[in-house]
UniProtKB/TrEMBL annotation:
Membrane topology: Multi-pass membrane protein
Name recorded for this polypeptide: Cation diffusion facilitator family transporter
Entry's transmembrane regions: 7-28, 74-95, 111-132, 157-179, 191-208
Any GO MF annotation of the entry: monoatomic cation transmembrane transporter activity
UniProt xrefs under InterPro entries: Cation_efflux, Cation_efflux_TM, Cation_efflux_TMD_sf, SLC30A9
Entry annotated with the keyword Phosphoprotein: no
Keyword Transmembrane helix: yes
Amino acid sequence: MNNNRKSIYSALAANVLIALTKFIAGAFTNSSSMISEGIHSTVDTANQLLILYGLKRSKKLPDQSHPFGYGKELYFWSFVVSILIFGLGGALSIYQGISHIIEPELMKNPFWNYIVLFLSLIFEGTSFIIAIKEFNKTRNGLGWWDAIIKSKDPSSFLVVFEDGAAVAGLIIVTVLMAFSHSLQMPVLDGLASVIVGLLLVFVSLILARESRSLLMGEGIAPETRLKISKLVEQDAAVIKTKNILSTYQSPEEVVLMLIVDFQDHLDTDDITEAIVRIRNHIKNEFQFVRYVIIQPE
């Protein structure tokens, strides 16, 4: 997770640097799309702080009220972030844009807007490149979409989505703002705000889908279940692995329950020894499996 923190910190620094300047430039030039970009950067800043908070909370040690630890805190705060992107980012940007389309106002001298957009592209682009590099370290040869679907750590791809949406939004705003000013069509500035809002809504839905699945108790992949089943059945005491139940408590912690059919001639002591042996084999082979519960059939 240290690599993920690096990308989060870089994104946080970039958004803090540019959020205020976007609002000032938007207010000074009367640009709806620039105000939307300011909202976008502010929401992104809050999101990164929440993810860092979730990462910290997820590291709390188990206690009596949470015997399996606090790992799911990360999934909860990731889901909150997706809601914030949808509500404060997407919905407000769309509202701001529609308001500007209904009552268009001519943009004042957009010079400072272009300066802010140019600097924002540098900061956001740098953060985006860092996020991509850090995410590539976790992909293990998988394609981008497969890596996102199979990832159990929302913080690893959340910054990539946020920064990617930010860069795309900046390009959209720059192009439509230029047309709006040159053609004296303020409606285009409002349209840019609506497009940025729709982009944020799209990103929020993807993040919400992944975070919800993990929060609701997503288990290990089918290929991993098959490997564990074969490993268990290699033990001489086992006839068959009847069922495997699992859930991710955090990106690095899995609770695993096995229902195993043991040889009929084994007594209680033999089964107990086999359970200990199987548990150790699984933990040695799969480092992310923290708890193994084995129930004889």
